[in-house]
């Protein structure tokens, strides 16, 4: 039997089978419905490791139904019958086995196309001059029938695997081309294939280098130089990046007709140290940093390329290179909830591994950037108490090292981490304003525009929390000015939310805007944010904003079923149920409400809990909320985000204290 996932998920029995158009036509095994194939695919992705039932359920259902475990067992049983149709009753399965608290797939690596592909690439890297490397790479590249796991389109795990495997496929194409060039084979065919490759993937510097080499070897020196100049023009004009040293050296070699370009030389390593991400890691990270500031699809592309570069650097075993690649992505971060928590966790793990390998006596600049990376990527809204303490220590150590170094870029990056770690408890808006002010001063003096924008936005958030809307407007205008000069389109998306927050606050004033005007401004800002590539910020923000607007006017919560409350549902639910006149259900929901995550909106969520406890006459819950809100009594609930407001915290605190006192 073999299983194929480089395309739609399918399984076949070895030796063929009937050919009558039925479900097992040509040896194909009928795996059942989409969920059955997804379970099998998830186990393939685990590469023989056990996957717990809990993890499988979470991967199959974003919101698992009550009978999820039973359904999973049904899928597994059906798959076992399909994969081992001749297994006698009551004998243990040998392919899809139960192991511990979950399941694992037990198949030889040669029986799964993705394993054969990965193994062929690894073997070609280990022995690039082996006689079978080119043939084996050609065979496994030909086995791709479409995107990996093509019929599992929405699952997060499948998207991550597709991204990883797509990158590995591009590396394999370039690795094979390099081997052919080194051997002097098929130069004419390579020109056509590599021309199509760079047209489809124009940011990959090694691909441009391979194309130029192929053109030169085909007797087309002028075309080879023209290809390199096109690559340079694209990188410089569109991204502001210079070509890496490999392309610059290749241009010189072609101009000088260097003997190094001839196939008779000893075979070169097809992937130079650190270049395993397709682009050289330096260029990959530079590109990722540039695209991250553009938002939208470019931001998603940026995150993907960043992790690919880190993984490529780690594979080289070069600790210094890995440290530089991880620390080079110093894109400012303004929000305390990660857009992709799993990727952030992977980056933090890589940074910690590299810190451990460098040791306490490693280069201070590398250690500072790695520690700052840990602090920035360890977003407080996603951390346990222990993880939060570790991230806080990393932020402080990064700041101390950066101040000793006197490097303004490293210090700005470290201060970003310090800022993101100030959400450990409510009530620290004034402390964040001080960090923002230092960022503005530092970045203005040393011409660090992206961190100057960050500083202005941090100050906007901080004064918003303190209720100083005039100062907030001044910081919004300054952030917009710097963004316009430096083509940073995400900034107006955030400042539009701030201005909607201002309209909401002023809708309570005599002669102020109407609540409908504020609601329309929130919705317009939400439409712009939806395309910004920031799901950690976007999801649930509009309903929470509209709820805050209603609370400002003592109106019940919005009950529109189309609203996606995202991560904020547990704290809004008691008020939603009260608005539906379901007090018993509201009490049950309030009892199940957890403490809010420690992020930009913790004051808002504690205020919702305080209001629900007050309305439901729940003194113990009200006392807990009051205890949390006392530290931020001078702030405005939700306004630390700079995006919305529920009004003064003091209002909710007074209600909670009165309820707790009975």
Notes on the protein architecture:
The chain has 662 residues and is mostly helical. Among the domains are: 112 residues, Arc Repressor Mutant, subunit A; 164 residues, Serine Threonine Protein Phosphatase 5, Tetratricopeptide repeat (Alpha Horseshoe), CATH 1.25.40.10. The chain has 29 helices and 7 strands. Strands 3-5-4 form a 3-stranded antiparallel β-sheet. A two-stranded antiparallel ribbon has the order 1-2. α7 packs antiparallel against α8, α13 crosses α15 and α19 packs antiparallel against α20. The protein is globular, with a radius of gyration of 28 Å. It starts with a strand and ends with a helix. About 7% of the residues have low confidence.
Topology of this structure?
Blueprint: E1 2-4, E2 10-12, H1 34-45, E3 51-52, H2 53-60, H3 68-83, E4 96-99, E5 102-105, H4 113-126, H5 133-142, H6 156-183, H7 187-200, H8 205-217, H9 221-239, H10 245-255, H11 281-292, H12 296-316, H13 319-328, H14 341-358, H15 364-377, H16 385-405, H17 408-420, H18 429-445, H19 449-465, H20 469-485, H21 490-506, H22 515-530, H23 535-538, H24 541-552, H25 569-579, H26 583-591, H27 602-616, H28 619-629, E6 636-637, E7 647-648, H29 649-661
Antiparallel strand pairs: 1-2, 3-5, 4-5, 6-7
Helix pairs in contact: 1-3, 4-5, 4-6, 5-6, 6-8, 7-8, 8-9, 8-10, 9-10, 11-12, 12-13, 12-14, 13-14, 13-15, 14-15, 15-16, 15-17, 16-17, 17-18, 18-19, 19-20, 20-21, 21-22, 22-24, 25-26, 25-27, 26-27, 27-28, 27-29, 28-29
């Amino acid at each position: 039997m073999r299983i194929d996932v480089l395309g739609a998920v399918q399984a076949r029995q070895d030796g063929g089978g009937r050919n009558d158009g039925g479900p097992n036509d040509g040896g194909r095994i009928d795996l059942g419905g989409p969920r059955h194939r997804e379970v099998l695919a998830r186990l393939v992705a685990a590469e023989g490791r056990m996957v717990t039932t809990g993890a499988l359920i979470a991967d199959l259902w974003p919101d698992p139904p009550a009978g999820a475990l039973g359904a999973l067992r049904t899928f597994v049983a059906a798959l076992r019958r399909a994969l081992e149709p001749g297994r006698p009753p009551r004998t243990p399965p040998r392919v899809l086995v139960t192991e511990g608290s979950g399941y694992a797939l037990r198949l030889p690596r040669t029986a799964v196309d993705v394993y054969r592909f990965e193994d062929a690439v690894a073997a070609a890297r280990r022995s690039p001059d082996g006689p079978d490397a080119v043939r084996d790479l050609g065979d496994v590249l030909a086995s791709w029938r479409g995107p990996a796991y093509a019929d599992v389109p929405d699952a997060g795990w499948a998207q991550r695997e597709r991204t990883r495997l797509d990158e590995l496929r591009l590396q394999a194409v370039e690795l094979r081309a390099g081997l052919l060039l080194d051997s002097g084979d098929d130069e004419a065919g390579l020109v056509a294939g590599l021309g199509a490759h760079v047209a489809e993937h124009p940011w990959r510097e090694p691909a441009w280098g391979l194309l130029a080499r192929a053109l030169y070897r085909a007797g087309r020196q002028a075309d080879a130089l023209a290809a390199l100049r096109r690559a340079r023009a694209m990188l410089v004009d569109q991204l502001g990046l210079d070509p890496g040293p490999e392309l610059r050296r290749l241009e010189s070699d072609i101009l000088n007709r260097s003997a190094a370009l001839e196939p008779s030389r000893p075979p070169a390593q097809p992937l130079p140290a650190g270049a395993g991400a397709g682009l050289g890691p330096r260029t990959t990270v530079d590109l990722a940093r540039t695209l991250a500031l553009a938002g939208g699809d470019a931001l998603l592309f940026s995150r993907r390329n960043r992790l690919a570069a880190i993984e490529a650097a780690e594979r080289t075993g070069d600790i210094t290179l890995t440290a530089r690649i991880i620390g080079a992505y110093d894109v400012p971060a303004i929000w305390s909830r990660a857009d992709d928590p799993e990727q952030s966790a992977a980056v933090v793990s890589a940074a910690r591994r590299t810190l451990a390998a460098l040791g306490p006596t490693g280069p201070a600049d590398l250690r500072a950037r790695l520690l700052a990376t840990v602090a920035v990527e360890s977003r407080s809204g996603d951390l346990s108490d222990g993880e939060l303490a570790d991230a806080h220590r990393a932020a402080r150590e990064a700041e101390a090292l950066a101040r000793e170094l006197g490097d303004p870029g490293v210090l700005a990056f470290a201060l970003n981490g310090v800022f993101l770690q100030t959400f450990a408890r409510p009530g620290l808006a004034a402390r964040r304003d001080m960090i923002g002010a230092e960022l503005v001063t530092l970045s203005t003096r040393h011409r660090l525009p992206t961190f100057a924008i960050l500083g202005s936005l941090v100050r906007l958030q901080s004064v918003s929390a303190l209720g100083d809307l005039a100062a907030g407007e001044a910081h919004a205008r300054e952030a917009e000015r710097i963004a316009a000069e430096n083509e940073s389109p995400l900034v107006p998306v955030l400042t539009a939310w701030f201005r909607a927050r201002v309209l909401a606050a002023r809708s309570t004033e005599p002669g102020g805007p109407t609540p409908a005007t504020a609601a329309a401004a929130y919705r317009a800002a939400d439409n712009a944010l939806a395309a910004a590539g920031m799901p950690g910020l976007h999801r649930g923000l509009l309903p929470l904003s509209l709820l805050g607007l209603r609370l400002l006017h003592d109106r019940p919560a919005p009950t529109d079923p189309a609203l996606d409350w995202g991560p904020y549902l547990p704290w809004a639910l008691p008020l939603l149920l009260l608005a539906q006149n379901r007090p018993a259900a509201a009490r049950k929901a309030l009892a199940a409400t957890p403490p809010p995550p420690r992020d930009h909106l913790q004051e808002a969520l504690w205020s919702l809990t305080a209001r629900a406890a007050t309305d439901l006459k729940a003194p113990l819950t009200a006392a807990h909320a009051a205890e949390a809100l006392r530290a931020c009594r001078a702030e405005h609930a939700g306004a630390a985000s700079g995006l919305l407001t529920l009004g003064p915290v003091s209002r909710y605190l007074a209600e909670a204290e009165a309820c707790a006192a009975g």
